[in-house]
Amino acid sequence: MKAAGRSAGARLRDRLAASDPGLLRLTAGLRTVGAIAVTLAVLASAGNDVTHLVAGAMAAMVATFAIREKQRGAQAVTLALGLPVALVSVSLGAVLSERVLVGDVFFVVLIFAAVYGRRFGDRGTAFGLIGFQVYFVALFVGASAGQLPGLWAALAVAFACSALVRFAVVPVTPSGLLLRLRQAFRARLGRLVSAQLALLDAGPDEMDKALEDVRLANARLHETALMIQSRLEEGTPDEPTARLVQRRIADAEIAAERLGLLLLSARSAERADTLTLHLPGAPAPEVGRLPGPDEATAQLRRDLRALRVLVVRTRPGGTSVARLRNRLLGYRDEENLPAATPAVRDVFRAVGETARAVMGLRVALEGPQDESDDSPATARSREELDAEDAAIAGEEAEEAEKPKGLERPTTRAAVQVSVGSTLAIVGGELLSSHRWYWAVLTCWIVFINTASTGEILVKGYRRLLGTVFGVVAGILLAALVGRHTWTAFFLVLVLIFAMFYTAPLSYTLMSFFVTAMLGLLYTLLHTYSWEVLVLRVEETALGAACGVVAAALVLPVNTDRRTNELLVTVLERLAAVTEAAVGQLSGGPGGDLLDKARELDQALGDLRSATQPLTHPVTPLRTRRTNARYVVALLETCAYHARSLAATAELLPTHPSIAADPRLRGAAGRTVRNIVTIADRVAEEDVTVPVETGPSIASLLGGDGTARYGRITDRVLRHLERLDEAVVGLARPLSVPVKPTDR
């Protein structure tokens, strides 16, 4: 029973780690709720009234979520310097509240400074958030000059309690956060293997769902890999260790994704396109039973279960685990492959490569392992990993180029939000001379983390939708709570936790919880009424409209321009990764390929976010939505093959079975030229150079396109050919002419 309890606990931890990588959402919710709860306890014990309790609670929330630095020392400095900013802001809010014109002008200046401050990094962003939000708190509680001493004390308590919870009650160190992210990666990798196991057994009627589960698991694994990448520098003791973990994470991700692709191909009546794994909603190919003897299918099912055990098991020791590992790593040798069709044998090879990647990841994260039960195949894999580790440790990271130039997005956004806020102040005061600031708050929020008019429109729509439903919830909660102050505060804490926990998942849900919470705060301040909540909806709609108008008329960046700029960046980085990887595979000098691949992934993530206005379900432009989704899916396919080429190229100096082939550079030259051609066409519409098509990459190496060159060379050719096909496929939706090349 005790062992079963521990097993259930481990499964629960894995589920939580997979659903909330690094427990970032849980930590944010607990920290914020804890800071508010401690602040309320201290202020209530000192006999403060409800107004000071509400002000202190809101200040504690701001002091907690505004701090974004990763290092604890930097967080402490920002929190300490943020208190004077908050004191000045609340003082000006109280003093200027009775001077309408001067107060409005100052509010606009404050908004401009807060947005412009984002150019100075996390600390500048934090000071801007604290200054704006605390000024808003002063307006919300109706602060006056006579109340300032009490408000100063409440803010000081709030910042002190926020520091206490951050550094003592819910502490997060960079190394601890990275550890949790690594656990999340393992949990999500286990989920992906489970989805692949379901794909193996899915019948024709279940195939679409099984394939969608694999797509989702791939996307979540990739998301966690990028999160780990962003935390490596602070969470690892030195640069070589960071690069080693980065490499092993990339190896595991690529190996697992390739396993799913080969499994799908083996089950397909015809060759499965890589695009099928990256295009949401794409129908599954026609499938049948796995070709070959039933014994091979049963063995593959057993091996996928064994692979899942290797992934999710927290402790690597034990004879049974060693036997599983030895068996799976044995598939890297041809003589250990079962009797089956070539496609099924490729799946077993992929199982072996994924097991090797899992072992390398475990060694990189947990240090040396027990080698007493190693088989010869496992010992060879360890030797390869040791050689790669030594090569990675000897590399020097390239210095990243910092952006230059006077034209910065923060300046444009600051001007836009200032104009939008001016409109919101004017319109908001026409609606209500006492609560006009809700329109300004909405205008401010819809500009945060947006870069185009379309993104602002979508964010404004989601905020309005969440506000409407939140008003209904606020009415119900206010009626239930009545005058029970501490019951209302308890529900406020619950709603705040829900707000922070759901914020990264759904902006609509976050807006819903915010509005419901505000209904309770109005109840506490004895200003609640049906009219107030209806006014909240009206002010929200007005603020969103002012934000869209300002974004559309003042220094506009329309969605097409924004997506085109990001698309060019993705294509340029794709060309850089492909050219560097092929150059190294052709015998050229080595380079920092994985960093280039991660830069490509980051650019692709930015593009995916920027296309949300085009792919949103409510968009009336159905053709553009389909086109945008297709282009992004093709680019994700290209990025997968480019990452795979980069990972293979980095094995070249140390892997005994990989040799450089000078012919690859010439064979892949057409693909790189096509990527550059498409990028030029997107950047300048008058470019008319066509994309070239022609013989297969294999035939350009002197073969007939069907000959096998050896396991590693076949893999490189497969990635190059799929990349070439996907790049040519980009030409049609991007209106680039295609011209066949003479043989």
UniProtKB/TrEMBL annotation:
Transmembrane segments: 23-44, 50-67, 74-94, 100-117, 124-145, 151-179, 437-457, 464-480, 486-503
Topology in the lipid bilayer: Multi-pass membrane protein
Subcellular compartments: Cell membrane
Classification via InterPro entries: Memb_transporter_dom
UniProt keyword Transmembrane present: yes
Residues covered by the Integral membrane bound transporter domain: 424-549
Residue ranges of the region described as Disordered: 364-386
UniProt keyword terms in alphabetical order: Cell membrane, Membrane, Transmembrane, Transmembrane helix
Keyword Cell cycle listed: no
Family: Belongs to the YccS/YhfK family.
The protein's name: FUSC family protein
Species whose genome carries this gene: Streptomyces edwardsiae
